[in-house]
Amino acid sequence: MSFPMHRPRRLRVSEKIRGLVRENRLTTAGMIYPMFVCPGAKVRNEVSSMPGVHQQSADQIVEECREVESLGIPGVILFGLPETKDPQGKSSLAPDGVVQRAIEGIKRAKLDLLVITDVCLCEYTDHGHCGVLDRDQIVNDATLEILSEQALSHARAGADLVAPSDMMDGRVGAIRAKLDKNRFENVAIMAYSAKFCSGFYGPFREAAQSAPQFGDRRSYQMDPANAREALKEVRMDLEEGADIVMVKPALAYLDVIRRVRDEVNVPVAAYNVSGEYSMVKAAASKGWIDEKRIVLEILLGIQRAGAEIILTYHAKDVARWLK
Asked: Is 1 a domain residue?
């Protein structure tokens, strides 16, 4: 018998010892803070289903980015709420679009932040889907040119990374080719490679005003039952030039994160999505849970599953707690 020769509790008797032997250490170094850019000036509207998260005009985004920088969070990802929507989402290409203005504002402020941009059409189309419509069908190939032009417009504005989230087939390759052709070969692609058709996106759709006006996104986002297919999607994105691959959502897909991490030799990201955030906030507001303890445990679990990069609305709170 190994007992009493081996007593694992010896290494748990104090915080000093627990810290010394801790296998995973949560820091802000791998965290990305999502932000929602809206038209106007001096606009800051809290999202009702996401306490602490706001829709903000570009000038206010820059001010919050100063706070993000001061907390040691390395980067932000921007989602746009345009002034106008159209069937093809072409307002997303405007040089003076909401995301483009926010990128330029952050860069003018000389903030030490990575600026990542969501590349998708759902916020910009009047029907709320992530691609071009032909009657009631999402047309894959016609969507790729618009997505690649959107990514190019973000790169021209100064984005450091672009993050296609649409789940159209071939979009990573189309974006990589467009960026390289226009001499933006150093702009990286963080691909939403395994993005599942999930019920956890509800609060985001309020924040981004991106709910589909009919049907759902099952024809392009992944079936939650499929893990092997996630690996196929990841491999395809890497073949097309993705620099970072992402699994979204995180909590219900920790097994997928682990399998992706074991499969690839590139950085793996995971998105701790709006529904995951809002559930914690709602329970904490009722006094049912210890918010700090729960959030740190969730993010540590995502990291332990294999994600080096975590996109999370908790990032600012976590930065304060870890200090």
From this structure: no
228-269 pLDDT per residue, tens: 999 999 999 999 999 999 999 999 999 999 999 999 999 999
Q: Provide the annotated active-site residues.
A: 195, 248
Rounded to two decimals, the pTM is 0.95
Residue that has been written with the tokens 């007992």 in this structure:
3
* Nearest alpha carbon to residue 201 among 252, 240, 138, 163: 252
Query: Structurally, how many domains does the chain consist of?
Result: 1
Residue 47 lies in a domain: yes
Q: Cα angle at 200 between 197 and 205, to 5 degrees?
A: 85
Exposure string of 2-22, with b = 16+ CB inside 10 Å and e = fewer, is eeeeeeeeeeeeeeeeeeeee
**291 lies in which domain range?**
25-322
Q: What is the pLDDT of residues 266-293, one digit of tens each?
A: 999 999 999 999 999 999 999 999 999 9
14 lies in some domain: no
Tell me if 210 sits within 8 A of 165, measured CB to CB.
no
* Inside any domain, residue 212: yes
Q: Considering only CA atoms, give the Rg of the chain.
A: 20
DSSP string, 19-85: HHH-S----GGGEEEEEEE-SSSS-EEE-TTSTT-EEE-HHHHHHHHHHHHHTT--EEEEEE--S--
